[in-house]
Write a structure and sequence with these properties.
Layout lengths: L2 H17 L2 H27 L6 H32 L5 H6 L1
Helix pairs in contact: 1-3, 2-3
Length: about 100
């Protein structure tokens, strides 16, 4: 492997180590529990109060929670990576070690 490939693989590994930290997961769950119901009401109000639950609707409802979870997790993980890259995090050693 060349240096560029190693750098990319290292960055991907670091991203996932940041994404799956307990604090990132908890923050993403909280965001999805707030944003998810709002998305459900905005996007599926008529369906929820007029139709029986189908597999297609269940998948859509799941995605209303899963998408904000992923966005929040991605944002947190990339923020941690930026902190490490620019050495601006007060606890950057903790982030880099995990």
């Amino acid at each position: 492997m060349n240096t560029k490939e190693e750098t990319i693989i290292g960055s991907v590994r670091f991203f996932f180590s940041c994404f799956f930290q307990r604090t990132t997961i908890l923050k993403a769950v909280k965001v999805s529990l707030v944003v998810g119901p709002v998305l459900v009401l905005v996007n599926h109000f008529e369906i929820l109060f007029g139709t029986a639950l189908s597999l297609k609707l269940a998948i859509k409802l799941f995605l209303c929670f899963f998408v904000p979870f992923c966005v929040s997790g991605y944002s947190s993980a990339t923020a941690m990576m930026d902190c490490r890259a620019y050495s601006i995090c007060p606890d950057s050693d903790k982030v880099a070690a995990k």
